[in-house]
Specification:
The complex is a heterodimer of chains A (177) and B (578). Chain A has four helices and ten strands. With 177 residues, chain A is an alpha+beta fold. Chain A has a five-stranded antiparallel β-sheet, with helices on one face. In chain A, strands 5, 6, 7, 8 and 9 form a five-stranded antiparallel β-sheet that branches. In chain B, α24 links the parallel β19 and β20. Classes of the chains: A alpha+beta (177), B alpha/beta (578).
């Protein structure tokens, strides 16, 4: 799973406060930085939430983005997660055309990818798959052959890989003004 | 102890040693205006909320303490957006308090409701909507801490009317509680020792160093440290528009202002430097010109309290995050025991430029209107010691910065980053309130004056005797200059008329003394008269020559190598690049 040089994941610990997501996304918009995907959820500590951002680093340096993020008072900690040092997961749900003559093939495809069928209609199936984002891309491409009528992906969440032999190359940066 | 939210707010401001609030009441902020009557805090009633914001800025510029502006919700809050953005761009510590509709009404498009926190998010260092009356003291303390520490800036508190009316528990939080309430805020003040050592090494090796001093020197109160560093290293110093006064203009190492309208020597010394010691500055486009060809041979030591400034525009060889005063002190100590480098050749090159390209303007021919530069020179030479100079934005601002002789810090108040026309009158009022012992002159253009002149009514009624010099050339002069130089003299929408309005009558109507000066012989006596008036504001309408342009000039987007000097200084004729 090689890291694509065009984007990078940031795991941003923020205070769990009203408007904090608007502060973060507003900063990206104002400075002309791009967010590719975003996932927000509370952490085990109710005072904090974690925002996982996949960012476009083709035109802007990660360093400048993290420094600008740190200027937001409610941002507490930022970890840069390189794809090779992180476990990344994302969830996909799709409603796919599955008339009687095609239904078997769709079910087979879901089985191969170890996904799930979560809803069944007369001519459609809603399927889901959780996994690493590249696997989801492949799944999506193959579903498209059958006809996708609705698709929703969550944006990725990530945690650093655990220490086995070498320490994880998780770069947590100190907070500044 | 139980108070109302409004009492808690005003008491919190008192606890923060606020001595003056600039503001204008209205519906939602009304409850906060009642306890003001019983408070030792002086309230200055402005005529437009933008004035309150710029006054708070002017006050902060000269005192170093945060200025406070308090206005109501909706249109009052939006009128405050320009000063907030101005303060954000120029890192001015400022507290804005806005009224908001009552909590149950928020989100329903109530009368005078607007999303103040949403609107001001990108022009404040931080802002908060206060939803719990008991939170007021802590949020006020947080606001002052954020506004004044790290990289200073404006902080806004939006307070719903019913929060001001509700009973509130009074408890003044201690330092630890404030720190714990801001888990993500820990500015770095002390420089990294290894980087300081590396900086000292580069300084010792440099043969053509220039100290590039920015507004951060003033914010960190590092003027004295800067002088020590300059004298210890012998490196010449340029002071940016935001740093005028941070290093004395009459010091032999001072090269003056760099940038688009800087001194030829300041601009060229940076271009030829082998080392830039950039202190509290952000490589603004008005200083660097075309970034790719800015100071091409220079290594860069960059010191700033805001880590995001390091490498934002120019990658430094030695980045140092920290407070300028501390870091400069550490650098001076790191240089102890080293021999200052021999900079003789560099100095003689510099004095060659200084001799050949001083600031220049042509003497007026018979019958010409006043030269604005001449007015600035007389204003400067007649100014009482310690005079504070404020300016608006445009040609007059550049002439003010070029022709004044700044000898001490905190005597220059201007809008650098945002370039806010109309800044000078309210900012001068704020400055005079902060330093009533000083003479305060506002140099203004006729275009700027018309944007905020109504605050002279505030100045008259509050007995704040500022002095205003309008360099009235009947044009939006800087725009006219660009149209002359870059748009083939096609003047589009820049003519304003010299006598509509009649500035003298207008000044008098606002309770000021008003004078008009049209001939060179009148300049000195009328300025002397203005300096002697102390019981009300003074406005002088100087009728100046509209043809005068600001030189030197680096055209926008051009390299600093292509600085255009005054035509009289160019043996090779015009070198205009567009």
């Amino acid at each position: 799973m090689p890291a694509s040089p065009s984007h990078q994941t940031l795991s941003v610990l923020v205070e769990n406060r009203t408007g904090v997501l608007a502060r973060v996304s507003g900063m990206f918009a104002r400075r002309g930085f791009n967010i590719i995907s975003l996932a927000v959820a509370p952490t085990d500590d109710e005072r904090f939430s974690r925002i996982n951002l996949v960012i476009d680093v083709e035109d802007t340096s990660v360093e400048q983005i993290t420094k600008q993020l740190f200027k937001l008072v409610h941002v507490v900690k930022i970890s840069e997660l390189h794809a090779s040092d992180a476990v990344e997961r994302e969830l996909l749900m799709a409603t796919v055309e599955a008339r009687a003559d095609q239904r078997g093939q769709v079910i087979e495809l879901v089985g191969v990818f170890e996904g799930k069928i979560v809803d069944v209609g007369t001519n459609h199936l809603t399927v889901m798959l959780a996994g690493d984002p590249e696997k989801l891309d492949d799944f999506e491409d193959l579903l498209r052959l059958h006809g996708i009528t609705e698709l929703q992906r969550t944006g990725r969440v990530a945690l650093p890989k655990l220490d086995r032999s070498a320490p994880p190359r998780l770069r947590a940066q100190g907070k500044a003004s | 102890m139980k108070l109302t939210g409004a009492q808690s707010l005003i008491k919190s401001l008192e606890m923060e040693q606020v001595e003056v609030v600039f503001g204008l009441p209205g519906g939602c902020i009304l409850p906060a205006y009642d306890p003001i009557l019983d408070s030792p805090i002086r309230h200055i009633l402005v005529r437009h909320e933008q004035g309150a914001g710029h006054m708070a800025e002017g006050y902060a510029h000269v005192t170093g303490r945060p200025g406070v502006a308090m206005v109501t919700s909706g249109p009052a809050a939006t009128n405050l957006v320009t000063p907030l953005c101005d303060a954000y761009m120029d890192s001015v510590p400022m507290i804005a308090i806005t009224g908001q509709v009552s909590r149950p009404v928020i989100g329903t498009d109530g009368f005078q409701e607007c999303d103040t926190v949403g609107i001001t998010r990108s022009v404040t260092k931080h802002n908060e909507l206060i939803m719990e009356p008991d939170d007021i003291p802590l949020l006020v303390r947080q606001a002052f801490r954020l506004a004044t520490t790290g990289r200073p800036g404006p902080v806004l508190l939006d307070v719903p009317k019913d929060v001001l009316q509700a009973p509130a528990e009074w408890s003044w939080p201690g330092d630890e509680e404030v720190a714990a309430s801001l888990p993500g805020y820990k500015p770095t003040a002390k420089g990294h020792p290894r980087m300081i050592k590396e900086a000292a090494r580069l300084i010792a090796e440099a043969r053509r160093p220039v100290i590039y001093a920015g507004g951060g020197i003033l914010k960190s109160r590092a003027a004295e440290a800067l002088r020590q560093l300059a004298e210890r290293t012998g490196a010449p110093v340029v002071t940016t528009l935001m740093a005028r006064g941070a290093f004395p203009d009459d010091h032999p190492l001072c090269l003056g202002m760099p940038g688009m309208h800087g001194n030829y020597t300041a601009i060229t010394a940076m271009q030829k430097a082998d080392l830039l010691i950039a202190l509290g500055t952000r490589f603004d486009d008005r200083v660097t010109g075309k970034v790719g060809s800015f100071a091409p041979d220079a290594k860069v030591i960059h010191v700033d309290i805001d880590p995001a400034e390091l490498g934002k525009i120019r990658q430094p060889d030695v980045p140092i995050v920290g407070d300028c005063r501390q870091v400069i002190g550490e650098m001076v100590r790191a240089l102890e025991g080293t021999e200052p480098a021999d900079l003789h050749d560099w100095k003689s090159q510099i004095s060659g430029w200084q001799e050949r390209f001083p600031l220049h303007y042509d003497a007026p021919a018979e019958g010409d209107a006043l030269k604005p530069q001449y007015v600035m020179e007389v204003l400067r030479d007649s100014a009482p010691a310690g005079t504070i100079l404020a300016s608006g934005v445009g040609q007059h601002q550049m002439w003010a910065s070029q022709y004044w002789r700044f000898t001490e810090p905190y005597t220059w108040v201007n809008s650098g980053g945002l370039g806010t026309m109309g800044f000078s009158i309210p900012a001068a009022i704020g400055a005079k309130v902060g330093r009533p012992d000083r003479t305060v002159w506002a140099v203004d253009g006729d275009g700027c004056f018309q944007m905020t002149a109504q605050e002279l009514v505030t100045a008259s009624s509050e007995r704040i005797p500022i002095k205003v010099a309008i360099l009235n050339n009947a044009y939006l002069g800087m725009v006219r200059q660009w149209q002359e130089m870059f748009y083939e003299e096609r003047y589009s929408e820049v003519y304003l008329s010299p006598d509509l309005p009649d500035y003298v009558k207008w000044a008098e109507a606002m309770g000021c003394a008003g004078f008009r000066v049209e001939s060179p012989e009148e300049v000195e006596p009328i300025i002397a008269k203005a300096n002697s008036i102390d019981d009300r504001p003074v406005v002088i309408d100087f009728r100046t020559d509209a043809r005068e342009k600001v030189f030197p000039m680096v055209p926008a987007g051009a390299s600093n190598d292509d600085v255009v000097v005054h035509p009289a200084q160019k043996p090779g004729g015009e070198r205009l690049v567009q």
